[in-house]
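Let's practice the habit of predicting before peeking. Look at the sequence and jot down your guess about where helices and strands might fall. Then scroll down.
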Amino acid sequence: MDKTININLGGTKFQIDEEAFKILRDYLHAINNRFRNIQGGVETIEDIELRIAEIFQSQKGLAGVLTTENVNAMISIIGKPEDFDINEDSEEEPVYTSQRRRLYRNPDDSIISGVCGGIGAYLNVDPVIFRILFVISALVFGTGFLVYLVLWIALPVANSDIKKRELTGNSYTSTRSYSNQSGGIHTSAGPGYDTGYKNSTEAGNVFNEIFRVIGQVFYVILRVFLIIIGVTFVLTGFLTIVSFIMVFVFKYPGAFSTDEFHVSLIYFPDFLSYIVNPAVSPWIIALTAIAIALPLIALIYWGVKMIFWFKARDGVVSLFALVVWVISITALAIILFNEGISFAETAKSSQEELLTVNKDTLYIRTDNKISSSKIDKELSVKEEGYSVFINEEDKELYIRPILNINSSDDNEARIVVRKRSMGRSELDAMRKTESLSYYYRLSEDTLFLDEYFTITAERKWSADNVGINLYIPEGTIVNIDRGTGNLFHDRYFNRYEGSSGSGRWESGNRNFILTYDGLRASSNRSMKR
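Done guessing? Here is the structure:
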């Protein structure tokens, strides 16, 4: 196994193998010999060492051992000692020329973000030219604005001497002063730091001042715009979270009345355990809460950042939150898919029976009423006339069927009960329809109908539905009670003239006559039982 050596470059520790260390040692020795006897050479040597440390870090040297390949790659980037331009007779600070120049945003020649200043310094051209070009192109469908925004995001800022040298090459003059006694590095923000490599002419400076004023106005407009967006984000996220907590945790409808949507969603989490396996129900609720809460929290956080315009080292936290959110979404999708398979197929079954009605009037009454059962919660979709009632003590569901009365083609009275369920397969769905419990009975001229059918604790809700189709001869008078009226869907009565069915029996009229076109209100209101 090759021997490894610990070294320290620019304050950063690395591990390097013995062969690579020899190459690096010889390279640093050559650098030292070239610059040590020149004024400012010590500072240049330290700059080069810092640059070497940056290159090794980018090569993932901190995660392992530096090899000869790493060292040779570094030398190809910085250059050999004999490639550096120095003037031994000059009193100016020496500079070294890297074989690789890079484009950065220039913080020392900045109107908005330093994009144009960086391009000008990189190309050694007056940056005002690029500012004028961006303004002109911004007037053409906003092209210049989009390009500038992309460069703003993509280009890093030249915030160190090494990056500034990479940006400007030999034209950059370092403004750092060094103390040989302490060995420390100090930075002075003197005039050379602020104006070290601006390339604008006097005419260009006039334009720069104009652009600076325009930039300040643009900055103020942008800040106001971002504050408005930030406030919107914060309010939207906060109010949405409060709404979910109020409705789904505290079950307080109040301002969030579900009547607006004609559906009772308050008890949906309680109803969930009757749809899926009770073991996964808490997981679905928890994962759904995470999937909803994390984006809302992020929305609030982004809004706060837009309002107060601060920077934070939140990359790790943001990445962790994103990973948690993706995992939650994925796990929720897998669970819902697995549970959703039980709704893959639909099956229907029917039961038909002839009714012997000897009189011209048929009385329809509700037998087992929902009001007399132990009901803890209700979930209803009023538009569809579908209501589910929960008996938590017995773990049973009671669902109101839908009643339709039609004319009989053969003048015989009969009742057809149609059941529908969903399952993993058609056979599974058919078995579920057979397990639905619904009862009715005929006593002389009175038909007794249960106000609900039952789903027992042994099985789950599977979009079950029961339809009661009553076929009787035309001209038969039908007398119904209030409970029976609840079995009719409003759309059934809306097909005919007059008001809806609910309005008919609430006003006291419970008598209807069956015509060719369906039920119509009868003028006789005296027949009651």
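How did you do? Residues 202-249 form the longest helix (48 residues).
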